[in-house]
Amino acid sequence: MEPDAITSLKIPGSVVRRLPRYLTQAQHLRQEGVEWVSSLSLAETLGLTSSTVRQDLSHIDFQGVSKRGYSTAGLEGALARTLGVDHDITCVLVGAGNLGRALALHDEFGRQGFKIVGVFDSAPAVVGKKVGRFTVQGMTELAGVVREQKVEIGIISVPHEAAQPVADQLITAGVRGLLNLTTAHLLVPAEASVVDARVLASLRELAYGVKRR
Amino acid sequence: MEPDAITSLKIPGSVVRRLPRYLTQAQHLRQEGVEWVSSLSLAETLGLTSSTVRQDLSHIDFQGVSKRGYSTAGLEGALARTLGVDHDITCVLVGAGNLGRALALHDEFGRQGFKIVGVFDSAPAVVGKKVGRFTVQGMTELAGVVREQKVEIGIISVPHEAAQPVADQLITAGVRGLLNLTTAHLLVPAEASVVDARVLASLRELAYGVKRR
DNA sequence: ACAAAAATGTTAAAATTTTAACGTTAAACA
DNA sequence: TGTTTAACGTTAAAATTTTAACATTTTTGT
């Protein structure tokens, strides 16, 4: 099945960053038994305009229906396909500190298709310890696991000084995307992707928000 | 000391979202003993243009020096003041699941001035349990703690269906900013701020990134 | 003391993103 | 069966954001 020439060509970053929110809404609504949703209602619950919603959804391979809106199930499926989350994605997690362990234990990601297949850490004191169903492995085993299990995404939750070397190791081993939970800025080759989770940055952004009133 | 009329008037959101990254860089550089940094060098390490960096920093109350650039210490201080992170900010955390517990245990936030003063959960089985130095409290105690300790920020890491009611309770109790770790979209009065941590959304954004190549 | 040059702050243009406007489609109902 | 109308998809305008260009400043070196 050939992907649609227009819709698959390249979705602007501003739009890609909103697609996950539409997906979440579509999921929630469908789970609540709602079958149809309009651009206006999506806009209101997400704090956008209906124009933006329609403009955004025009980038995915899915059509609304006049007078009804969008089928929540159809929208959910189309968004999942567009984002590439309509199938499981294998991940490894590097850095078994508090944050890393929490993510490994947080089954919601697994339910959403992000399957962690290994947890790694460089500290000998941590290697061998259990984190939920995982046994923490040493960094020497990382490349092998990535190759054997065709791991696509690496989640980095190490101290920020260690982040770049870990990123390099992951990319060299064959991972194509990095979720960066550190405050470091990661440099990767053009064919790889990085998304920063920005947890501390979000808190700081919030500090600015609460200050000015 | 009157805040500068121009610089404090309102910094565009696009800029505010980058200020924490400059702050992080300035901190890292100063800790490494680097005293000066240019807009070009900042731009290169953050993946921006030097123009954007200079434009962004023109919003804060701080001047660079011709031929030298920006003093890392000065920049760090000015950014911290602009964002409002030059003093401690009290936070409470609601939802002592895996993610919540990890954040409570992650001392980096505390070192950066975000002081958690209480951890709350609605599940009777969890209330009374220890999370690091905290004893999980019931929701009935939330309002009292927020008022007595003048808590400014609430961190929400509950199941998404519970997020809005928890947000309402926090706002009613007097919190002025919310860090939302759930996938719910939170509605709050105009005088309050919400920042979404977008962890799952980031993974999904990454899925799109790894798909298209 | 003067000239050269590196890097800022600022102005203005370019690019992108968001919003509004509106023609079109198809469901609902008389 | 025809009319009404809600809501889409699309075009174009408005607003915002990013980038380029350059005049200005100030350090450095001769």
How many strands of chain A? Answer: 9
What's the number of domains of chain A?
2
**The CATH topology of the largest domain in chain A is what?**
Rossmann fold
Looking at CATH, the homologous superfamily of the largest domain in chain A is NAD(P)-binding Rossmann-like Domain
Radius of gyration of chain A: 20 Å
Write a compact overview of the structure shown.
The structure is a homodimer. Chain A is an alpha/beta fold and about 210 residues long.
Describe this structure in words.
- The structure is a homodimer of 213-residue chains.
- With 213 residues, chain A is an alpha/beta fold.
- The first copy, chain A, folds into two domains: 70 residues, Winged helix-like DNA-binding domain superfamily/Winged helix DNA-binding domain (Arc Repressor Mutant, subunit A, Orthogonal Bundle); 114 residues, Rossmann fold, CATH 3.40.50.720.
- In chain A, the strands form three sheets. In chain A, strands 4-3-7-8-9 form a five-stranded parallel sheet, with helices on both faces. In chain A, strands 1-2 form a two-stranded antiparallel sheet. Chain A has a two-stranded antiparallel ribbon with strand order 5-6.
- In chain A, helix 9 links the parallel strand 7 and strand 8.
- In chain A, helix 2 runs antiparallel to helix 5, helix 3 crosses helix 4 and helix 8 crosses helix 9.
- The longest helix of chain A is centred in the C-terminal third of the chain and has 14 residues.
- The radius of gyration of chain A is 20 Å and the shape is globular.
- The N terminus of chain A is likely disordered.
- Chains A and B meet through helix 2, helix 6, strand 8, strand 9 and helix 10 of A and helix 2, helix 6, strand 8, strand 9 and helix 10 of B.
- Chain A binds a DNA duplex (30 and 30 nucleotides) through helix 4.
